[in-house]
What we know:
Layout: H1 6-9, H2 20-39, H3 48-53, H4 60-79, E1 89-93, H5 96-103, E2 113-117, H6 118-144
Antiparallel strand pairs: 1-2
Amino acid sequence: MDGLSDELIWRRMKDSMNSIGNLCLHLAGNEHQNVVSAIGDRPFIRERTREFSTDGGISKEELIILLRRTRSEAKDVLSALSNDDLSREVIIRFDREDWNRMHRIEARADKTYDTRLIGRLLIQVSAHYGYHAGQIVMLAKLLRDTNEHITGQYH
């Protein structure tokens, strides 16, 4: 995101696409929900719908701080895990509105959760992060229109 302005961070290439800013909010929300909240047993705080509907008002620097703060909290949780914890099941909570939108059903408030083994959840979170990080790199390349290898690696 270094070479992009705040305006470019929030630009949607098409109305049906997310901006880099949306993807950053989504990555932070997902990591917090699954690692910090579910695995770390800390309070569930997430507005998933807002991650995709926000269209600015948060600077590039604020997004970077959010991602780093979330990663720091996640590292604290992960560093406390043992090998035995990987086979422990955790509850992943969802906001009712988000749950209903994702599953296209009307669930009761007490039924808006999933369970996962920690080992499997960590694989899912990692794959999810890589998927959206790739989208961010692609969008940054399109927005900057450069041949520079923005990841520092030759591809």
